[in-house]
Design a protein that fits this description.
Layout: H1 4-13, E1 20-24, H2 29-38, E2 42-48, E3 65-69, H3 72-77, H4 79-84, E4 87-89, H5 93-99, H6 101-106, H7 117-122, H8 124-133, E5 141-142, E6 152-156, E7 166-168, H9 171-177, E8 184-188, E9 193-202, E10 209-210, E11 215-228, H10 229-232, H11 238-243, E12 250-257, H12 265-283, E13 288-296, E14 302-308, H13 334-348, H14 351-354
Helix pairs in contact: 2-13
Bound molecules: adenosine monophosphate (AMP).
Adenosine monophosphate binds near residues 189, 250 and 295.
């Protein structure tokens, strides 16, 4: 892990009037560039073999420059060049995943947020320890497959976007679905409606929903469109389909805007608050955007199955604001909020608190 001192020294050398906000050319890059431009930053698109013609179609979100590399390894060789350009990288899910958390952790280009969160997020057991110790309700883990007595979801470790997850309702079904070579864990299948709640935590802002330090903001919510589970019901029961060799999968293909009933909002804020407060002690705090991935039961219990500790693609429906972010500032996207936080860090001389 690159040390905080090292990053602070690099930041001290930056020309604060000429900061460049950079990110990888996919995932949530449109809103990150759009937001950074609106806040007056220079922007740089990092293309690791991605095509960039798409940006011509969206002038308000086209970065000022592109950096083309063939691999993430080559990007490491560009470290000095990026530092010379006063670059702050905004890591999104794809960027960290493709660079790999291990390499990203030691990359010496200043990055928005706290890199220490990666250890706690990538390891499902540590993530569970973090959330349950914060008093957050999570789906039960079934450690003995022979004891499956209710619908469960079998999750493979490192599965991308839910690919290969499967549902089982008893031990024979579990055995039938299991791919033996892969590591997995079994989780109670929580029946309810899914809410992906997008928060932003600022350690340096003082006005708003206050925590022991800084403020918590609710920016938006979405529901993921998942193929093929979301459409499967059209063909009959899952049982019947399994007999024909069709199995449900949870591959994310898009995002649908959503608004929760208002009485759920205090519950969501309580969860966000717990997650942030407990992150202070565990790893020095989660900073910036994060997403609580939850299921709301018919008892209106909120069960959290995962937390993503950076900007997620579910914020993309809200490039021009959401029902929640509009009440903070009309038209505010998560991408723009990140740029505002960097601006506030510069103004207050506190960049080192939000950049690691
Ligand atoms: P994940 O990779 O953990 O984000 O899960 C992928 C998808 O599986 C989610 O978006 C949900 O649709 C579904 N899912 C995950 N965990 C559960 C659970 N415990 N109960 C019901 N559905 C779940």
């Amino acid at each position: 892990m690159v040390s905080k001192d090292k990053i602070r020294r690099i930041l001290d050398s930056y020309d604060k009037k000429n900061i460049t906000i950079a990110t990888g050319c996919s995932h949530t890059s449109l809103q990150i560039f759009h937001g950074a431009k609106l806040e007056g930053f220079r922007t740089l698109g990092i293309s690791v073999q991605q095509k960039t013609k798409m940006y011509d179609a969206f002038p308000a979100a086209k970065p000022d420059d592109f950096l083309y590399v063939d691999s993430y390894a080559q990007l490491i060789d560009m470290t000095d060049y990026l530092i010379e350009q006063n670059v702050i990288v905004v890591p999104h899910g794809s960027f960290v995943e493709y660079m790999t958390p291990a390499i990203f952790e030691s990359w010496e280009v200043p990055s928005f947020g706290n890199r220490m969160v990666l250890d706690w997020e990538a390891d499902r057991e540590k993530e569970r320890e973090w959330l349950t110790s914060a008093g957050v309700k999570m789906p039960r883990i079934i450690s003995d497959a022979q004891k499956i007595d209710r619908p469960v979801l079998v999750k493979y470790h490192g599965a991308k976007g839910g690919r290969g997850f499967f549902i089982a309702k008893d031990y024979p079904e579990f055995k039938m679905g299991l791919e033996h070579a892969k590591k997995y864990h079994i989780q109670e299948y929580v029946l309810g409606t899914r809410y992906y709640v997008h928060f932003f935590y600022s350690p340096i802002k003082t006005e708003g929903y206050k925590l022991s330090k800084g403020v918590l903001e609710l920016l938006s919510m979405d529901r993921r469109d998942e193929s093929n589970i979301d459409e499967m019901y059209k063909l009959g029961s899952v049982e019947e389909l399994k007999r024909h060799g069709f199995f449900p999968t949870f591959v994310v293909t898009g995002n649908v805007p959503i608004v929760a009933r208002e009485s759920l909002l205090p519950k969501f804020f309580d969860l966000g608050e717990r997650i942030i407060e407990s992150s202070f002690n565990l790893f020095g705090g989660l900073i910036g955007p994060f997403c609580i991935e939850s299921i709301v039961t018919d008892q209106l219990d909120v069960v959290v199955f995962e937390v993503s500790a950076r900007i997620v693609a579910g914020t993309n429906p809200y490039i021009s604001g959401s029902s929640y972010s509009d009440l903070i500032q009309p038209g505010l996207s998560t991408g723009r909020r990140i740029a505002q936080e960097i601006k506030l860090g510069v103004e207050k001389g506190l960049l080192h608190e939000i950049i690691t």
